[in-house]
Amino acid sequence: MKSIRRLFMFLCCATLLCVACAPSALASEAPLSIVCTIFPAYDFARQLAGDTAQVRLLLPPGSESHSYEPSPRDIIDIQQADLFLYAGGESDHWVEEILASMGDNAPRTFRLTDCVTLLAEETSASMEQEAAEMDEHVWTSPKNAMLIVQQLCATLCDIAPQNTQAYEGALSTYLADLKELDAAFEETVANGKRDLIVFGDRFP
Q: What is the pTM of this model?
């Protein structure tokens, strides 16, 4: 009878230990939290991270990033993120201010403009002369996009090394798509009937 009681107590303790350990085991497999300011950064992150992360886009598509003001909820999400992606440059002045205010509690960040060589704005005689500005719209070049996603992949692998194989596999597929897009651009330019482009913005 005592043996049965001991066995019963042992099974109860073992069950309690399993239940107690379950939340921590699940927590270790929880998806990463990635917050992005603009759609290009959001798209890069979701293409590479897939199901291993919850990726949130702060600015709705079509919104004006230069006048965007984050809500208290946005600021909390940024601070609690495993990784925060933003373009960098003049339109993201609010980002630098928020990150500075967080001090040691600021999340790990990834700035797109740090991944490539920036180009200066071109001016003409009819334009008012100002201090040179750098083009922060770095994602519009497939070649730039390739550099960005390669560095983003390395960052994700550093944060979640258990997902390295998945990230590198996604990177390989995405790079192939970007190379195909870049080749299509080059073919269009090489075979175009005109070599004049007229535009009404500084960085189209």
A: 0.77
